[in-house]
Structure formats: C-alpha cells, structure tokens
C-alpha cells in the first residue's frame, strides 16, 4: 500500500514554545524548521510513502519543505490542528481518491524511513490506526485506509481520544524514531540520543545542551 502523509506545521514564530528552557526565542523558529525538514526528508525516503503534503501558512517553511519535494497545502480553515488536518485530507482525497492517508507530526527529527515503513505496514491492517508517542500520552501518527476518514483528534491526551474514536492502537516495538516527538528539552535530548537528521544536528550543535 502506498501512502500520502499529511504533516501539519504551525507558523515558525509560534512553534515549540515549550522548548523555552533549552532554546531562546531567536533560536526556536530555526529549530522547528530543522525538525520539520528532517521529518519530511525521512518521510520522502520511506518506501511506503508516495507523497508528502505539509499543511502550513509559514512562507519560509513552505519554500524550504517544497524544495525537499513536499507539496504545500495552505491552512485555509485556520481553526487549529485538527481542522488543518481534516482540510488537508480533503484536499489530498480530491486529487488522490485512492490514496491511504496518514497524519504525521512535524517534530520527529530522528525519524528513520524503515521504521516509518513498519508502522505504515502495520496500520494498513486496520481502517484507522494510530501510534502513541514516547510519553504514551499523545499521538505521532494517525492512519486511515482509502475507505476510511482520517477523523483526527490530536491535542491533549490524544492517545486516549484516538482510541475512543475507534482507531486501533499499534503495539509495535523497535519504532522509537517514529514515537519520539520533541516538545521539551528532555525530548530533544532523547531524540539526539537516537540520532537526528543533519539539519537538527546542526541546529542543536549551536545550543548548550547538558549531557549532549
């Protein structure tokens, strides 16, 4: 099964506010862009992925991610994360009605293409499926086969919300790079320990991170 991934990215100036203990206001936008670039590059290298669509209104992010090969979908609803994902899913389905869809976080800088392929292969067994994040509270990937709606429920406690919505939780091991999103300094250190992509590595090298 070939997948189209939908990756939401808020304007860089507002991204990653919870990293304030590790990265200052002048650094966080560049760090958020680096996360997204490494995530998109790894997703496009995944053998199960045919297309990547990034939902963003940020002009710099749009240019940089389009240069990697992603399609850019404007966040026309401007109604929050789930509205943006539902809008992007509708746009993708209007042009690729037979495509399986998966929403993927933009902050997975350690993402490995083959681990992502394992997750998508497992998700293909269910109409809708999701992968919990490393903290076992949130969600890093929500998938829907071509005959199912994505019905995103991201936000606080999204693991419980996606489970309650009827999506199957994927109980996979050995896919840490797909689970490790980055919201805090501790998350960033965990991602660095896994091994991040080149853009995040370069951006992180400019930070003073204890234990790095």
Give a brief description.
The protein has 212 residues and is of the alpha/beta class. The chain has helices at residues 28-44, 59-68, 81-95, 113-123, 158-164, 176-179, 185-194, 198-204; strands spanning 3-8, 49-55, 71-73, 100-104, 128-132, 139-144, 168-169.
The radius of gyration computed from the alpha-carbon positions, rounded to a whole number of angstroms, is 16 Å
Low-pLDDT residue spans = none
Helix content estimate = 25-40%
Percent of residues in beta strands?
A: 15-25%
Strand order of the largest sheet: 3-2-1-4-6-5-7
Mean pLDDT: 93
| Main β sheet profile | 7 strands, mixed
Please count the helical segments: 8
Going by helix content, strand content and strand pairing, the class is alpha/beta
Order of SSEs, N→C?
A: EHEHEHEHEEHEHHH
Counted beta strands: 7
Would you write up a description of this structure?
It is a single chain. This protein is α/β, with parallel strands linked by helices and 212 residues long. Helix content is 38%, strand content 16%. The protein is built from 8 helices and 7 strands; from the N terminus they run E-H-E-H-E-H-E-H-E-E-H-E-H-H-H. The protein has helices at residues 28-44, 59-68, 81-95, 113-123, 158-164, 176-179, 185-194, 198-204; strands spanning 3-8, 49-55, 71-73, 100-104, 128-132, 139-144, 168-169. It has a 7-stranded mixed beta sheet with strand order 3-2-1-4-6-5-7, sandwiched between helices. Helix 1 (28-44) runs parallel beside helix 2 (59-68) and helix 1 runs antiparallel to helix 8 (198-204).
């Amino acid at each position: 099964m070939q997948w189209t991934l939908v990756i939401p990215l808020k304007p860089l100036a507002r991204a990653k506010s919870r990293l304030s203990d590790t990265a200052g206001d002048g650094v966080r936008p560049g760090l958020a862009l680096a996360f997204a670039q490494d995530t998109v590059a790894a997703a496009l290298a995944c053998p199960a992925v045919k297309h990547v669509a990034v939902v963003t209104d940020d002009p710099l992010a749009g240019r940089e991610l389009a240069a990697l090969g992603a399609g850019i979908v404007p966040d026309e609803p401007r109604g929050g994360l789930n509205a943006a994902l539902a809008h992007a899913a509708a746009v993708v389905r209007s042009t690729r009605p037979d495509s399986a869809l998966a929403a993927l976080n933009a902050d997975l800088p350690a993402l490995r293409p083959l681990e992502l392929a394992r997750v998508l292969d497992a998700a293909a067994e269910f109409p809708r499926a999701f992968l919990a994040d490393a903290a076992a509270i949130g969600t890093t990937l929500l998938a829907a086969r071509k005959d199912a709606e994505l019905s995103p429920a991201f936000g606080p406690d999204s693991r419980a919300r996606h489970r309650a919505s009827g999506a199957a939780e994927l109980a996979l091991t050995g896919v840490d790079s797909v689970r490790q999103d980055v919201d805090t300094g501790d998350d960033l250190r965990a991602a660095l320990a896994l091994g991040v992509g080149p853009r995040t590595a370069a951006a992180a090298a400019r930070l003073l991170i204890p234990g790095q």
